[in-house]
Amino acid sequence: MTTLQANPLPDDLDRALLVGRVWRTGANAGPAVVAVRGGRLVDITRHAPTVADLFERRDLLAIVGGAEGTDLGAAHALMDAALRGADGADGMRLLAPCDLQAIKACGVTFAVSLLERVIEEQAKGDPSRAQDLRAQLQATLGADLSDIVPGSEASQRLKTELSARGLWSQYMEVGIGPDAEVFTKSQPMSSVGHGADIGLHPTSHWNNPEPEIVLAVNSRAEIVGATLGNDVNLRDIEGRSALLLGKAKDNNGSCAIGPFIRLFDGAYTLDTLRQCEVNMLIEGVDDGFILEGSSRMREISRDPLDLVAQTCGAHHQYPDGFMLFLGTMFSPIKDRDAEGGGFTHHLGDKVAISTPSLGTLVNTVQRSDAITPWTFGVRALYANLAQRGLLVPE
Questions:
Q1: Which of 32, 69, 100, 133 lies at a C-alpha separation of 20 to 30 Å from 75?
Q2: Is 198 helix (H, G, I), strand (E, B) or coil?
Q3: Does residue 346 contact residue 289 with C-beta atoms inside 8 Å?
Q4: pLDDT tens readout for residues 313-337
């Protein structure tokens, strides 16, 4: 990997409040909640047995910033080991930084992703048609969709016009209509972390990474922090039918989150996120393919607070909190295997998603049926915590 991976931790690490999870071995074998202090991992599980429990505490910032815990070593060392596919010291390994939270995701919240979803729908899963459809849609739509405020009078006029021309789409409806698309991306405990393999369904032949900002939200609908995510996307399967969204989105290893959740405090806030730029790098190991891109959160069509409100409220509760992907900011379309064929993954691709305030999330692309199966779920977690005497925090 190149410069995007140069600093896997935030540039201002000395000021960042970071929360994550690691797997410990030995007498304390099992998942541990950790804080990163001075670049070192500190086990704070005795204060909150799960990250979901930690995010419910009113003294969250104080616990992460200074509560007593066990020093587990340098964060960089464990992250470097993860990239090599190896365990760290004493068999420790990095996990996704969330646990019991529901994994939710928002779709078509950026103009570029809206256009690409419409192309998938029109192409019916055939990547060879994408280039011509992209040119036709751009010529037909004319105006920059990023200037359209969802649910506004202007969006309704555009809907009327496009409908009259037979061009309205279900993706247009959630992209510029009043209601956001919010779906269940993955199951609690199923996300993979930094350095892990991510999985593609074996029947997919047109797919891509989706680099996103992910919010950490507690049961009171309070946004407590943010991290990075890869909402792995199967364009051919969803393109055949939006009713196949579950098959396209929720597979073994199809959701990567990490490396750590950065908590909001006086210096790092939602406004910081609103101004951040997210970079992505894809490197092919079999063909030397390189694709780099970046996008800015200020181009999002719906404010993060609105997306949280549409996800959680009087209409829907999340007693264990939730992680919320805010939407794809960059859709890779660079030709790879053939002219006009656009982009699709090769097995072994390295994907790095980065922003200075959150660090870098790196994963390797494999087939979902070839990577390690997911076996450690909620029942296993609570059995493990009970065995370790950690079900009641101090």
A1: 100
A2: strand
A3: yes
A4: 999 999 999 999 999 877 787 889 9
